[in-house]
């Protein structure tokens, strides 16, 4: 059945609502988070809120990130790693480093690269003009 083409209804439904497979993965992720001890769950939910605003926007990239997040916290809970040890002294630094591993769909990464490229071009133009006048 997995190899069968989707019905027109399912194709239309996914256009309107998004991928049904991504929704299933998200529900599975939420169930994994719900099983964590309370302090780990609280930390993941806070991290998730941050990622919803600043992380990858596409479904597949975001789900890979969330699944890895669940795995990280499941393993940390199993090892009884303190939450502070997971995040270190600067939780924002941790989440930014974590997100850097998932650039697909991350508009901030694209904009940072675009900005850096524009500055590099502008600096090169300035250097070229300076070199011509010497």
Describe the structure.
It holds the Pfam family DUF1048. This is DNA-binding ferritin-like protein (Dps family). With 134 residues, this protein is an all-alpha fold. The chain has a domain at 24-107: c-terminal domain of poly(a) binding protein (Orthogonal Bundle). The protein contains 7 helices and no strands. It has helices at residues 8-17, 20-34, 38-54, 59-79, 83-87, 91-99, 107-133. The radius of gyration is 21 Å and the shape is flat.
Name of the level-1 CATH class of one domain = Mainly Alpha
The quaternary structure here is single chain
What is the CATH topology descriptor of one domain? c-terminal domain of poly(a) binding protein
Total beta strand runs: 0
How would you classify the helix and strand content by structural class?
mainly alpha
Count of helical segments?
7
Q: Please indicate the percent range of residues in DSSP E strands (runs of 2 or more).
A: under 5%
- CATH-scheme architecture of one domain: Orthogonal Bundle
- Mean pLDDT, rounded to whole units? 82
Radius of gyration: 21 Å
Biggest beta sheet summary: none
Q: What pattern of helices and strands is seen along the backbone?
A: HHHHHHH
Keywords:
single chain; 134 residues; c-terminal domain of poly(a) binding protein
In short:
The chain has 7 helices and no strands.
